[in-house]
Amino acid sequence: MNEIEQAQQELVEEFQFFDNWMDRYQYIIDLGRQLPKFDESDRVDANKIRGCQSQVWFTAEHCGDRIRFQAISDAAIVSGLIALLMRVYSNRKPAEILSTTPNFVSALQLEQHLSATRSNGLSAMLKAISEHARAAVEAA
Amino acid sequence: MNTAQNSMQDDDTGTFDMESYRAEFPILSREINGCPLVYLDSAASSQLPNTVINAVSEYQKTKHANVHRGVHTLSHLATDAYEGARDSIVDFIGAASRSEIILTSGTTESINLVAQSFARPILGSGDKIVITQLEHHSNIVPWQLVCEQTGAELHVIPINERGEVSLDDVVAALDDNVRLLAVAYVSNALGSILPIKEIVKEAHDRSIPVLVDGAQAVPHIPVDVQDLDCDFFAFSGHKMFAPTGSGVLYGKENILEKMPPYKGGGDMILEVHFEGTTYNELPYKFEAGTPNISSVIGLGESIAFLTAIGMRNVYDHENRVLDYLTSQLSTLDEMRLIGTAAKKASVQSFMLADIHPHDLGTILDHQGVAIRTGHHCAMPVMDYFAVPGTARASLALYNNENDVDRMIEALVKAREVFRS
After folding, report:
1. Fewest CB atoms within 10 Å of the CB: B42, B92, B187, B420?
2. Is A29 in contact with B373 (Cβ distance < 8 A)?
């Protein structure tokens, strides 16, 4: 099991504690509130992923053989979902990012938020994560 | 008032019983996320009554063929149904003749048609198109495009903090360089009703033609285009209980006559030769290609449905529910109502505390309550109120006080989720 699979499994286990949607959302919202502070100087148009309903700011930096992502949204639930994505994908090896399927999305019943047709900025962020990983793999 | 309307009148209270009409909308009895659906997003798209669904289905099963073309029976049946819908539209909005009713894909296409076919040929550098700050993007971008193409300028009439457009501000904008005034009848984001009749009169006193974006008006208030005296009036079928893909551009016949075709293709021509082509008469001159026949037939049927209820009854019913909606929202702590015009129809936008509208919409959806969240295709309105977007509840004739109560309960629950 690689690091990404490990992180996904931990998330799935954590969410097993909740037996109703309200608790699940409250937990997601709490995770969003605990996101590391997003540098105000990075909150610029160039880092903005536009969605119809909420906005996401997103940055990526290479640290050795890993990519570190940071992101934040103006919406609380979207920020919580970002926190989940960061736990799974940030500070990982690009090849692992590309080769690991995001199984946790369906396990946590989050498909409606993360599907490509939702215009909340998250699906565009998922795409950006894999594009960064692909570019890093190709450059290596 | 006809017999059908009389039979619906409750003599004791004088109020109108809309519940039997609500029962005609099958989708309203389904569940979403385990809760009975509360549909409060009709300003985006309204639901379909059985009569419309059945008419479309019946057409597909027994009458489908291309219109205006064939000698065979099916083509005649399809043409009769399609042109019958056009006749219904003439009566419903009080047009002078069927030549004035151009069938389009919706309000957006109707406005683009006027921008390209009416405005573009007459515009030049120094000319102005005037709109207001509360317009839907569909009544902004077509004018920005035609201004770029011609060197004309787009002038915007401001709104006030209640979301109203004052007649004085309209008058102040109407100078000698204005070639067209394009205004919404009802704001989709704020619900404000604009004083269209007075606006048209002021514009006409200065020989300025007026286009009215009636998309949010036609399903909610009685409309008579000859009484309004507007030159163009655009609206969509899918906001008035018809399927998506049908819409209308009303235009005064003497103006439409002078306009060149907007699109080229089949059905809009009389004769085509490589040396030259002659165009069909109104309204077909503007209807190139095979139209959305089944949607238009659905629109004809939705008009029959609205006519049976009576638009005055629809307006009174929705007004009562809107008043209740607004007063119930106002009971919530940290509620900010956006759009508080003195005259309103069917829409209430709001912000609850500092909860992002997208978050609110998500939590409401989990409770079966469908509202719209976001900028409502009216980003300049969001800029004015300095919000990223709003939550918007919008009503149609099938909504009632119970829907409002359910939404309020859902909002209270959402508040708990975000407070903890």
Report:
1. B420
2. no
